[in-house]
Structure formats: C-alpha cells, structure tokens
Amino acid sequence: MDSSPKTRPRRRATQGSSRKTFTLEHANRTLPLVRRIVADIVSQYEAVVEAQRQLHDLPENTPADKRHVVEESSRQVVEKLRDLTEELELIGCELKDWQTGLIDFPSDHDGHPIYLCWRLGEEAVEHWHEIDAGFAGRQKVDSTF
C-alpha cells in the first residue's frame, strides 16, 4: 500500500451533511493555532518526500538492516504527517494542499455551504469559494460576511 500522503482521501462537505462550520471571525481566531500546525505540515511533507525518495533510491542489494532503518524512518515521518493532519481535522478545517498549506474552513453564506479559504503566509482568512470551485474560484470576502 502506498503510504504517500497524496493518497489519503479528502473529506468533502456536501449540502445537508453535518459539519462544523466557521464564521469569518471564528476562522480568524483559530488562525494562530492553524498556522503553527500548517507550518509543521508543510515542513513534514518535505521530510516525507525526502524519506520516500531515499527509500526508492536504495539499491536492490542494500543490506536488510539498512533497508529496515530507511523504511522505519519513512514510516515515522508519514505517521507524524498524518498526526498533524488529524489535528487540523479536529479543529474542523480541511487541508487541501500539502506543499503550500492551503486550508478550507467549512462555512455558510447566504444560506448555502461554502469554504472560507486561507493559505500559509497569508495574514488572515480573507477569501472564500463555492464548495466545488476550489482555489481557482477564490473570491475576496466582503462586508456580507
């Protein structure tokens, strides 16, 4: 089984599902914690990529004990990444991109579900998009939020 974090399924919010929702104010209040976790995720993702590269690059004649050390190291960094991702899920936000630290906060606007959208490096949650629009559909929040 591929332990790559990219194979982990993403939960999608759909209309009518029970989900935690955030107001813009609430999303911004959680941002200090979310920012720290996401920074760790981006860093850990880089470690996962490197560990899996090392494992892939091992020559076939690598002694079993050395192969085991590299496999165990790879397993540990993947597990840490999963733990960090679960921390975000407990908060209620959704990780959308491991490399850039793109996060969606489930929300409601004008009676329908949307995502408030934030990316590592941004000062505040200032964007939103329709559930199926993704990053390309990001729009600036306005006074109606």
Biggest sheet record? 5 strands, antiparallel
How many structural domains are formed by the residues?
Answer: 1
Residue fraction in strands: 15-25%
- As laid out across the biggest beta sheet, the strand order is 1-2-3-4-5
Q: Compute the separation of the termini in Å.
A: 43 Å
Strand count: 5
**What is the string of helix and strand elements?**
HHEEEEE
Amount of helix: 40-55%
How many whole angstroms does the radius of gyration measure?
18 Å
Inertia-based shape = elongated
Structural class: alpha+beta
Mean pLDDT: 88
Low-confidence stretches: 1-17
**Total number of helices:** 2
Please provide a written account of the structure.
The chain is α+β, with helices and mostly antiparallel strands and 145 residues long. Helix 1 runs antiparallel to helix 2 (64-91). The chain has one domain (20-140). Residues 1-17 have low confidence and may be disordered. A 5-stranded antiparallel β-sheet has the order 1-2-3-4-5. The protein is elongated. The protein has 2 helices and 5 strands; from the N terminus they run H-H-E-E-E-E-E.
